[in-house]
Amino acid sequence: MFSVLKERVGDVLLPGDEFCCGPQETLSLTDSGKPERLVAGPGIRQSGDRLLVSRSGVLRHKEPNKFWIESQQRRYVPAKGETVIGIVTAKSGDVFKVDFGGSEQASLSYLAFEGATKRNRPNVQVGDLVFAQFVVANKDMEPELVCIDGSGRANGMGVFGAGGLLIKVSLGLVRRLLAPHSDLRADLEKLFPCELVVGMNGRVWVRAASVQQTLIVANLLQSCDTMTPSQRQQLFKRVQQGGL
Amino acid sequence: MMEVSPSENVSLREFGCEQTLLSRPDGSASFVQGDTSVMAGVYGPAEVKVSKEIYDRATLEVLVYPKVGLPGVRERSQEQCVRETCEASLLLSLHPRSSLTLILQVLHDAGSLLSCCLNAACMALMDAGLSMSCLFCGVTCAISTEGEIITDPTAAQEKESRALMTFAIDSKEHRVMMSSTRGSFSVQELQQCIAISQKASEKIFQFYRDSVRRRYSKNL
């Protein structure tokens, strides 16, 4: 059914491109009754039985029926369930205001931390970094963050400790870092031990054994954005040999 | 619709484009048409001033800076032309209560400035990853005193011309989205210019596709 679309996977599409994914003319007797439904991801809009591309980028596909456009962006638009690194900008009553690089600030309740109660408030100051997850994120409402998962555990989220360095990279690089079996992460692991916290909003927090190593990792990540895999491996090899 | 006879030449000057060349904006592009060159930067969707907030869509602000001096009446009219074209092609309702800012810096004006601004704007919006219903491009036509139609004129050709028109054309149906005209011309001449611009736009859209493909070739 999506053969028109499947043929174009890996191609670069531009806004305004259109596909017709009409219902099949003939009914197959072997198929089970339920027709396949297409899931349109970022950059693709469904309008009747037509598919409209609204962003420029590479068409990607995931079995059985997910399609989306992968593009390079810098500005983050929140989505429910994504984890981000935010900066606490204000304390007002029982919520913190958190800047996550989007179009408005998100609110973070003081009760949304592991072990927090009305009596036992979490120790969060203005200017602190938090790693948190969106529970409310849609275009019409104020985004809301929490630092606990569904069972009330921190699960890696919360306020950052001292040390480390926060850098900004493109959203495309973040997705490459977080992808399972990412070759970029594998290359990075070979260099030296370091701690990385990657927010979907393009903010990356790095901490290594020394300040020097932290800076090296931060600079490498920022320059990875515009490099091909072979260029990157060459650079990493030079760093490993102490060439930089 | 007017037919363009094959003898009529749709010649555009050499054009070029570079995307993501600035580090601070969310999307940037520079567009060169002959000696005319414009740099564009896009910020957004970002926080909006309460006075400019629109409850069901994003506020788009376009700023045109001339090469020297401060923006004046000419720049304001260019801003309006570009803004109305962008508003028509962007899906602004996806980002209500936020602001988009498009800044166009003229680097050199050697004719067809408005069409170059439109092209740079489109490339920068695409680079920022904003959702659009279609792309657009700008084509300028000049009618010389002898009645000859020149596409993508230089500054000298513009000065000698009897009439000057700029059209913004969409990528889906090649319809006219915006037109800005100066001088006197007949209805037939206008339709002829539109037909020629539509033909020229195909070249520009092909160029858009090639340049975006080149940009993404690195991460394939």
Structure in a nutshell:
Chain A is of the alpha+beta class. Chain A has helices at 3-7, 171-178, 183-191, 211-224, 229-240; strands spanning 12-13, 18-20, 39-40, 44-47, 50-53, 57-62, 66-70, 83-92, 95-99, 106-109, 129-136, 144-146, 158-159, 165-168, 194-198, 203-208. Chain B starts with 14 loop residues before the first strand and ends with a helix.
Describe the structure.
The complex is a heterodimer of chains A (244) and B (220). With 244 residues, chain A is an alpha+beta fold. Chain A folds into three domains: 2-70, RNA polymerase II/Efflux pump adaptor protein, barrel-sandwich hybrid domain (OB fold (Dihydrolipoamide Acetyltransferase, E2P)); 83-160, OB fold (Dihydrolipoamide Acetyltransferase, E2P), CATH 2.40.50; 165-240, K Homology domain, type 1 (Ribosomal Protein S8, Chain: A, domain 1). Helix content of chain A is 20%, strand content 30%. Chain A has helices at 3-7, 171-178, 183-191, 211-224, 229-240, and strands at 12-13, 18-20, 39-40, 44-47, 50-53, 57-62, 66-70, 83-92, 95-99, 106-109, 129-136, 144-146, 158-159, 165-168, 194-198, 203-208. Chain A has a five-stranded mixed barrel. A four-stranded mixed β-sheet of chain A has the order 1-6-7-3, with no helix packed on it. In chain A, strands 2-5-4 form a three-stranded antiparallel β-sheet, with no helix packed on it. The radius of gyration of chain A is 22 Å and the shape is flat. Chain A starts with a helix and ends with a helix. The model of chain A has no long low-confidence stretch (mean pLDDT 89). Chain B has 220 residues and is of the alpha+beta class. Chain B has one domain (15-215): Ribosomal Protein S5, domain 2 (2-Layer Sandwich), CATH 3.30.230.70. Chain B is built from four helices and nine strands. In chain B, the strands form two sheets. A five-stranded mixed β-sheet of chain B has the order 1-2-3-5-4, covered by helices on one side. Chain B has a four-stranded antiparallel β-sheet with strand order 7-6-8-9, sandwiched between helices. The interface between A and B is medium-sized, with 29 and 40 residues.
